[in-house]
Amino acid sequence: MKRFLLSTIALVIAFAANAATVVETTTFQGKIAVGFTAEIPEIGDDSDAATVVFSKMDDGTYQFVLQQFSFSGLVIGDVTITKGLNAEEKDGTIVLTTDNVEAPVTNSDMADMLGGKVLITMKATIKEGKMVAELSNIHVNLSGTEMDVTAKFESSSSTGINSVSTASAKASRIYDLSGRELPAMQKGLNIVKMANGETVKIIK
């Protein structure tokens, strides 16, 4: 029993050490256009407001969260891209790309009906504080009904970069979706409350 407990504690410590932590976040406010053809739609006066939260992790990876993505009156929820998100930084420009990756969907009544995920291909550019993201092949399987959606997001403003020190991040508290405090990040969505009071969502 003692050996089992020691092994469990060692696993928890190792898992916590390997968990990526947010070090910078930028919130982009703008508009999104959604279409049902292969062509990327253009932003118009009637396009809906949208928010993207972009985070840089301490292990050099990135996280892209399209908050409360919706179309045709259906609120899909928060679409989070972490795994399969490639990033290149050059001359002050960040280019983000994905190729048909599974993006977890949370924070909506539709999440369970979607199996907790959608497939998505994306190319996004961040330059001079603005983001433009083209999302294609958004494959939505809604309880057996399948559809492909395209979308374009353009930011009109950003809140700037909020830096989070690694020391503060290590002093943070981690919770699951039901609000239970966790000893370390678990697989899936984690709600992380930083020492500075900021709360972020991290997919592990």
Explain the overall architecture.
- It is a single chain.
- This protein has 204 residues and is mainly β.
- The longest helix is centred in the N-terminal third of the chain and has 17 residues, at 2-18.
- The chain has helices at 2-18, 166-170; strands at residues 22-35, 48-57, 62-71, 74-81, 86-90, 93-106, 117-127, 130-142, 145-163, 173-175, 181-182, 189-193, 199-203.
- Strands 1-2-3-4-6-7-8-9 form an eight-stranded antiparallel barrel. Strands 11-10-12-13 form a four-stranded antiparallel sheet, with no helix packed on it.
- Helix content is 11%, strand content 58%.
- Residues 1-18 and 161-171 have low confidence and may be disordered.
Structural class comes to mainly beta
Series of secondary-structure elements, N-terminal to C-terminal: HEEEEEEEEEHEEEE
End-to-end gap: 29 Å
Biggest sheet layout: 8 strands, antiparallel, barrel
Spans of 5+ residues with little confidence (pLDDT < 50)?
Answer: 1-18, 161-171
Describe the secondary structure blueprint for this structure.
Layout: H1 2-18, E1 22-35, E2 48-57, E3 62-71, E4 74-81, E5 86-90, E6 93-106, E7 117-127, E8 130-142, E9 145-163, H2 166-170, E10 173-175, E11 181-182, E12 189-193, E13 199-203
Antiparallel strand pairs: 1-2, 1-9, 2-3, 3-4, 4-6, 5-6, 6-7, 7-8, 8-9, 10-11, 10-12, 12-13
